[in-house]
Amino acid sequence: MNDFIQNLSSSSYLLIAGGYLLGGIPFGLLIGKAHGVDIRERGSGNIGATNLGRALGKRWAFAAFLLDFAKGLVPVIVAGQFLDEASEREVVQILAGTASILGHTFSIYLGFKGGKGVATTFGVIAAVAFPAAVLAGMVWSIVYLATRTVSISSLATGTALPLGIWLTDLLYPFPSLAPRLVFSIAIACLIFIRHRENISRLLRGEELTFRKKTEEEPVGNETGKEETRGA
Question: In whole angstroms, what is the distance from residue 15 CA to residue 131 CA?
Answer without folding.
Answer: 25
